[in-house]
Amino acid sequence: MIIRLYQDVKVTRPKTQSDEQVLEAALRLIHEHGPEALTFERLARACGLSGATLVQRFGNKARLKQRTLLHAWDGLDDKTRTLAASVAKTPAGAVELLVALSQGYGGIESYAEGLLVLREDLRDPLLRARGAAWKTTLCNAIAACFARTPNSPPDIGLLMASHWQGSLLWWSFDPTIAVAVYVEDSLDRFVAAVTTAPARGP
């Protein structure tokens, strides 16, 4: 049966696919089965191209994994920029931005798999640099939402982004409600504390 299915895949194999389509298939493999599941053999079955073609395009497994994770960063950068441009430049807009980014995590199993992907990012200097650049973009987008808010601290972007990441972690230990609901409540309380705090002296 397995042999027959594989033969059927070969018969219906598309002749061409863009690198972006292949990397999307690779990213699905990583998120569904973990980073170690990304092999040329499994990707060939997933995207319909031959293993030899994939090796010709990507060179080796390490390069394939790096290209896949860089592709994921491209997607997150695009999503962050799009959301940042669409939300109101208010504290509520900052909450909306981060809640929308949280919805991509799905349930606890998906979040846990995401941590395995994060481990791969942390091992690679190029991927770490992408994470650092995204932090700057995100913090700037959050800060823009507080530009007209009196008494907000100068590093509000980093403070709120850090609180958001912490709320995701605390949710993961007790995921009894949807992650977006948990994050929104946590961020609303953070904003209330920040915006009602008395002004600090010189």
From TrEMBL:
<keyword id="KW-0804">Transcription</keyword>
<dbReference type="GO" id="GO:0000976">
    <property type="term" value="F:transcription cis-regulatory region binding"/>
</dbReference>
<dbReference type="InterPro" id="IPR009057">
    <property type="entry name" value="Homeodomain-like_sf"/>
</dbReference>
<dbReference type="InterPro" id="IPR050109">
    <property type="entry name" value="HTH-type_TetR-like_transc_reg"/>
</dbReference>
<feature type="DNA-binding region" description="H-T-H motif">
    <location>
        <begin position="39"/>
        <end position="58"/>
    </location>
</feature>
<feature type="domain" description="HTH tetR-type">
    <location>
        <begin position="16"/>
        <end position="76"/>
    </location>
</feature>
<dbReference type="Pfam" id="PF00440">
    <property type="entry name" value="TetR_N"/>
</dbReference>
<dbReference type="GO" id="GO:0003700">
    <property type="term" value="F:DNA-binding transcription factor activity"/>
</dbReference>
<keyword id="KW-0238">DNA-binding</keyword>
<keyword id="KW-0805">Transcription regulation</keyword>
<dbReference type="InterPro" id="IPR001647">
    <property type="entry name" value="HTH_TetR"/>
</dbReference>
<protein>
    <submittedName>
        <fullName>TetR/AcrR family transcriptional regulator</fullName>
    </submittedName>
</protein>
